[in-house]
UniProtKB/TrEMBL annotation:
Full protein name: Antitoxin
Coiled-coil parts of chain: none
SUPFAM superfamilies attached to this UniProt entry: YefM-like
Task performed by this protein: Antitoxin component of a type II toxin-antitoxin (TA) system.
PANTHER family listed in its UniProt record: ANTITOXIN YAFN, ANTITOXIN YAFN-RELATED
One Pfam family per UniProt: PhdYeFM_antitox
Family: Belongs to the phD/YefM antitoxin family.
InterPro entries linked to this entry: Antitoxin_Phd/YefM, phD/YefM_antitoxin, YefM-like_sf
Amino acid sequence: MNRPLLAPTGVSISDLKKNPSAVIAAADGFPVAILNRNSPAAYLVPAEAWEELMDIVEDVELARIVKARSDETPIPVDIDDL
């Protein structure tokens, strides 16, 4: 079963094992598909890109919460009472 390659480049698991630092450096900040028998088995994502993805996921989750609560009746609160 072949899956689409969702990264600009791919590298075999064997090549990754030989020199992971070189693979990361060659990726130049972009994700790399880790291939097993020419099919993506995993993706290597740079830390900065992963952090950005997690920020987006958090924003999406917060937007869901806001949308779910948008029909609620607001409760007046005085800041001095907190």
